[in-house]
Specification:
This protein is mainly alpha-helical. The protein is built from 2 helices and no strands. The longest helix is centred in the N-terminal third of the chain and has 10 residues. This is Short-chain dehydrogenase/ reductase.
Length: about 60
């Protein structure tokens, strides 16, 4: 996720590499976690248990 923890000039090279390795070509934004969070906290997800919901822009494919 693109957060304050990976900001700064010293991480430019690493950020470029992370972006290049992700199928979406970018890092995720923290607000993109909202959908899965709402699902899990609402009645829509009340029967979900014991699973991984991966929010990574497709990086798990590689």
């Amino acid at each position: 996720m693109d957060t304050i923890l990976n900001e700064g000039e010293g991480l430019t090279r690493a950020r470029d590499m992370w972006n290049a390795r992700n199928p979406m070509g970018r890092m995720g934004h923290p607000w993109e976690l909202t959908g899965p969070l709402v699902l899990l906290c609402s009645n829509a997800g009340r029967y979900i248990n014991g699973t991984d919901i991966v929010v990574d822009g497709g990086a798990i494919v590689f």
